[in-house]
Amino acid sequence: MKQRERRPGQKKTSAPSGESRRDDRAGRPPKPAARPAAARETERETTAPAAPARPLMARSGERPAERVPVILESLGAGDFHLIDSGNGQKLEQYGPYRIIRPEGQALWQPSMPAHVWERVDAVFTGDTDEEGTGRWRFPKEALGETWPLNLLGVDFLGRFTSFRHVGVFPEQIVHWSWMKEQVEKAGRPLKVLNLFGYTGVASLVAAAAGAEVTHVDASKKAIGWARENQALGRMEKLPIRWICEDAMKFILREERRGSQYDIILTDPPKFGRGPNGEVWHLFEHLPLMLDICREILSPKAAGLVLTAYSIRASFYSIHELMRETMRGAGGVVESGELVIREAGTDGKTQGRALSTSLFSRWVPK
């Protein structure tokens, strides 16, 4: 969430997790597995099984209606906004800090003068590959590893990680806002499953809105950070189950148990390795993952959301997969891209749109 991170200076491990987003996640844990995406991949220690544990279901009936392309855009939210981008970089505001990070899709020239880019608090340097490690340079003064942030009324910690990520993928706020609305208007406690949940911001947003949340990530570190975020916001009493486990193994067990969820968020990495040598390849294993997710959706489900980061594919690939998976379920599948629009130094001056990830979302109507 793309679910994918390591502390600066920490040795790289092979354990994956369950969004390192997007990409921007999954800080997601190490060359990952479980929530990060390309960018998340490397930051989230995500995992998945090496081979299908069961065959795909034979689906019948009409495919859901479709809405394409759908562009879900954010101008920023809470303590975050994109100031400017260009020359393969992006200039962002995270709370009190102005940050520069690599961004391969920023093919244009920056629109803001050089002095704006020079007045930054942190710059990510080193390997510019999404799966490569690097370090942070602090032009003004040395900064601590973490600092407080807030999105959608939820407090959490920003974090300077060795995989360029900062503990949250703000483009996901469009999905989180949608989820928050579904939970608040449901009139009953919805059950939310957050696969590859990374540092738990989405889980905290859902729980604060009134949902019963199950958060799954294969990275012990990511789960630990999620619990830190929960404590920071004094949200310890909220109904959240923190599950440190391979995402595929977890949902297969839930299917056998007959467990059901009203909303499922899944943000898998492109590639990852699990703690026991499990290998996750998005193009090989995603069909089975979605198939199982459909089986554990409740009869009155509010939605199934998939995000994919840094993959060489059109959104149509995951769109058509989602429609096939939800064949006979009715509703509509809407797919496209998540983008963040530049907002200038004031957070309000609209500029160019920067694409961050692909998504597909099934909703009942």
Secondary structure layout plus pairing:
Elements: H1 38-43, E1 65-74, E2 80-86, E3 89-94, E4 97-102, H2 114-118, E5 122-126, E6 134-137, E7 146-151, E8 154-159, H3 173-185, E9 191-195, H4 201-209, E10 212-217, H5 220-232, E11 240-244, H6 247-257, E12 263-266, E13 271-273, E14 279-281, H7 282-295, E15 303-308, H8 315-325, E16 332-341, E17 353-363
Parallel strand pairs: 1-16, 4-5, 9-10, 9-12, 10-11, 12-15
Antiparallel strand pairs: 2-3, 3-4, 5-6, 7-8, 13-14, 15-17, 16-17
Helix pairs in contact: 3-4, 6-7
What does this 3D model show about the protein?
Helix 3 runs parallel beside helix 4. The longest helix has 14 residues. The chain is globular, with a radius of gyration of 19 Å. With 365 residues, the protein is α/β, with parallel strands linked by helices. A hairpin with a 5-residue loop joins strand 13 and strand 14. It has 8 helices and 17 strands. The strands form 4 sheets. It has an 8-stranded mixed β-sheet with strand order 1-16-17-15-12-9-10-11, with helices on both faces. It has a 5-stranded mixed β-sheet with strand order 2-3-4-5-6, with no helix packed on it. The protein has a two-stranded antiparallel sheet with strand order 7-8. The N terminus is likely disordered. Helix content is 22%, strand content 28%.
What are the segments in which pLDDT stays under 50 over at least 5 consecutive residues? Answer: 1-51
Percent helix among the residues? 10-25%
User: What is the mean pLDDT?
Assistant: 86
Sheet with the most strands: spatial strand order: 1-16-17-15-12-9-10-11
Shape: globular
Gap between N and C termini: 25 Å
**Structural class determined from secondary elements:** alpha/beta
Number of helices: 8
Biggest sheet details: 8 strands, mixed
Q: What radius of gyration results from the CA coordinates?
A: 19 Å
Order of helices and strands: HEEEEHEEEEHEHEHEHEEEHEHEE
Determine the strand fraction and express it as a percent band. Answer: 25-35%
Count of beta strands? 17
